[in-house]
Design goal:
- This protein folds into two domains: 62 residues, Helix Hairpins (Orthogonal Bundle); 105 residues, minor pseudopilin epsh fold.
- The chain is mainly alpha-helical.
- α1 runs antiparallel to α3, α2 crosses α3 and α5 runs antiparallel to α7.
- The two termini are 28 Å apart.
- Helices cover 51% and strands 12% of the residues.
- The longest helix has 23 residues.
- β1 and β2 form a beta hairpin.
- It has a three-stranded antiparallel sheet.
- It binds fe (ii) ion (FE2).
- The site of fe (ii) ion (FE2) has 7 residues, from α1.
- The site of fe (ii) ion has 7 residues, from α1.
- Its cofactor is Fe(3+).
- One of its GO terms (cellular component) is cytoplasm.
Length: 199
């Protein structure tokens, strides 16, 4: 089934001042659109043409680099838009708060590890919180790769490609990551994915 660009779940100016309208216009309308367009071109005539997106991502990894890069980035960005919301961020509540405290010792330690993963990802990529074998862990991946191809289920991810922060933060990637955790994360969506993945 062909890839389609989802609408942003909020207005383009809704995440300011932490992520600007200009960033979202470029990131969603140009970059994500390009992954959709290129992905659809590369899907044609392959064994993955009628497969769900997650299967395209997992099946093309290590086999069809062009398709994988675009399918991976399509999957990552579909979730990335939903991992943010206006007036988001801060400390979560519910089962995800308990899971973070159980796994990292405290919410602050999770925050430190997550920001460190994003800061130390050399070049383009992502930092993640994912569920693997019933446990939650922080990781980082290059380019379009994600925890799905490492046997884990991503429940939170932050895009550290320069296109995600350079307009608003220039080279200050750590400041962008801090703002993401403190002001943008949609913990309700993380909780939903965690509940589903932990079953
Ligand atoms: Fe991106």
């Amino acid at each position: 089934m062909p890839f389609t660009l989802p609408e942003l779940p909020y207005a383009y100016d809704a995440l300011g001042p932490y992520m600007s309208k200009e960033t979202l216009e470029f990131h969603h309308d140009k970059h994500h659109q390009a992954y959709v367009t290129n992905g659809n071109n590369l899907l044609k005539g392959t064994e993955f043409e009628d497969k769900p997106l997650e299967e395209v991502v997992k099946g093309s990894f290590g086999k069809n680099a062009g398709l994988f890069n675009n399918a991976g980035q399509h999957y990552n960005h579909i979730h990335f838009w939903k991992w943010m919301k206006p007036n988001g961020g801060g400390k979560p509540s519910g089962t995800i708060e308990k899971a973070l405290t159980d796994s990292f010792g405290s919410f602050d330690k999770f925050k430190e590890d997550f920001i460190a993963a994003g800061t130390t990802q050399f070049g383009s990529g992502w930092a993640w919180l994912a569920v693997k074998n019933g446990k939650i862990e922080v990781s980082k991946t290059p380019n379009g790769e994600n925890p799905l191809v490492h046997g884990a289920t991503p429940i939170l991810g932050v895009d550290v490609w320069e296109h995600s922060y350079y307009i608003d933060y220039r080279n200050r990637r750590p400041d962008y990551l801090k703002a993401f955790v403190e002001n943008l994360v949609n913990w309700d969506y993380v909780e939903e994915l965690y509940t589903h993945a932990a079953k």
